[in-house]
């Protein structure tokens, strides 16, 4: 169990890590099933979440050529923005989605993806507006409810966010992306046990992908259980992707010296 000193030393880490992971969850929550993180239809057939940095760059170059030929094409624009986002080119992804939203101002899928891009760029209030405009009250979309909740969490409105997650779960019971967002909500508050409870439910739910397990790995690692965290980070992935996940996990835990502080405490407890 973490001491109060551990909690104080890592509160900034929780916020930083949770921000990135909640926004990653938005990637899988905003769009329809053919545009979710880790399952975007690619010419190569390889999920975006499993692409290396080089593969993402190559895919972005290929899609960029098609986008340049026809910037108003919805399918190409959405795929291009997704690959740019996964490659860390947030500003460029947002520029693509902004132009696409102008071309398709009433398209729910475009508005949802635009909201995702705005949120990833830290523009949370505009992102919330875009996601809400994509929603239709008479026929609500659980993905958009979950995405709206993730943005509200970042705005410090956890009560409103969790109410939306529960509405989304009523519509889509045991959905891993919603459960993962709920876990992130607790992580934002520094409640690691609560976060782990929902993350484990998400990871064991049908359809859970490697990103959900990576979120769980981070929560487990933040509690000092490093071997278990690395095992989770390597699950069901190629060796290259597994190493990338472990490196990411270590980089998150290394912020503010949290990795070393927690590891020293773990050794002391073992002696």
UniProtKB/TrEMBL annotation:
Gene3D superfamilies: Tetratricopeptide repeat domain (1.25.40.10). Transmembrane segments: none annotated. Signal peptide: none annotated. It holds the Pfam family TPR_16. This is Tetratricopeptide repeat protein. It comes from Aquibium carbonis.
């Amino acid at each position: 169990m973490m001491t109060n000193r551990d909690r104080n030393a890592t509160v900034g880490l929780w916020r930083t890590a949770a921000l990135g992971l909640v926004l990653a969850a938005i990637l899988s929550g905003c769009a329809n099933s053919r545009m979710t993180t880790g399952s975007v239809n690619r010419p190569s057939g390889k999920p975006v979440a499993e692409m290396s940095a080089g593969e993402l760059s190559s895919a972005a170059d290929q899609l960029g050529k098609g986008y340049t030929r026809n910037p108003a094409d919805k399918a190409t624009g959405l795929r291009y923005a997704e690959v740019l986002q996964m490659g860390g080119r947030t500003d460029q992804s947002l520029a693509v989605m902004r132009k696409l939203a102008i071309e398709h101002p009433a398209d729910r899928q475009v508005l949802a993806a635009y909201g995702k891009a705005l949120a990833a760029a830290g523009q949370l209030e505009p992102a919330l507006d875009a996601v809400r405009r994509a929603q239709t009250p008479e026929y609500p979309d659980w993905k958009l409810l979950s995405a709206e909740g993730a943005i509200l969490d970042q705005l410090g409105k956890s009560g409103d966010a969790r109410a939306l997650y529960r509405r989304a779960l009523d519509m889509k019971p045991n959905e891993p992306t919603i459960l993962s967002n709920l876990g992130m909500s607790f992580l934002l508050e520094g409640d690691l046990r609560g976060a782990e409870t929902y993350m484990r439910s998400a990871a064991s739910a049908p359809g859970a992908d490697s990103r959900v397990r990576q979120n769980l790995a981070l929560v487990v690692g933040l509690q000092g259980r490093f071997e278990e965290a690395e095992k989770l980070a390597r699950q069901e992935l190629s060796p290259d992707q597994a190493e990338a996940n472990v490196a990411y996990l270590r980089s998150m835990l290394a912020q503010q010296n949290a990795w070393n502080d927690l590891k020293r405490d773990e050794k002391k407890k073992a002696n």
